[in-house]
Specification:
The chain is mostly beta strands. Helix content is 12%, strand content 35%. The mean pLDDT is 97.
Length: 164
């Protein structure tokens, strides 16, 4: 388990190494390296998802390791509370950014091995702290430096703790 301590409370995440080994191990490595500490939840869309893992409070993108293979075709679904890899339009472009689903977002699931059908790889779930995720969901957002849906007050990952 991984505990993300934010300025709004703790979010406990359980990884699914069995069904999404590349994504889960990639996320774990970023956690072990302290990469997420000091990053923010920079994209919040009520009823959809909250995204974090790549930008600092001054909206500077942190350098990442190489992109990983997309594991959205391994059966895990984008349901409420699941955590998935964020990426660009290119299916195999995920690095460090992730999002937590606020709804059952089946349209993000894998449907085909095409650019449009690849989907977004789920690699774990929030096992405690969905109340904190819902607090994040309710914050006021704005546009900053070309980014939409940015919380007006930064939601900062202050500490990442690995348990067990």
């Amino acid at each position: 388990m991984i505990i993300f301590t934010t300025n709004l409370g703790d979010i406990n995440i359980e990884l699914d190494v069995e069904h999404a080994p590349v994504s889960a191990k990639n996320f774990l490595r970023y956690c072990e390296e302290g990469f997420f500490e000091g990053t923010i939840f920079h994209r919040v869309i009520k009823g959809f998802m909250v995204q974090g893992g790549g930008l600092t409070a001054d909206m500077v993108e942190k350098p990442t390791r190489a992109a990983i293979v997309n594991e959205a075709n391994r059966g895990l679904k984008n349901v409420v509370g699941s955590i998935a890899m964020a990426r660009t339009d290119a299916p195999h472009s995920a690095t460090g950014q992730f999002f937590i689903n606020l709804a059952d977002n089946s349209f993000l699931d894998h449907t085909a091995t095409t650019n449009a059908g690849w989907g977004y790889a789920v690699f774990g779930k929030v096992c405690a702290g969905m109340d904190v995720v819902r607090k994040i969901e309710r914050v006021k957002t704005t546009s900053v430096a070309g980014h939409d849906d940015v919380p007006r007050e930064p939601i900062i990952v202050e500490k990442v703790t690995l348990v067990g």
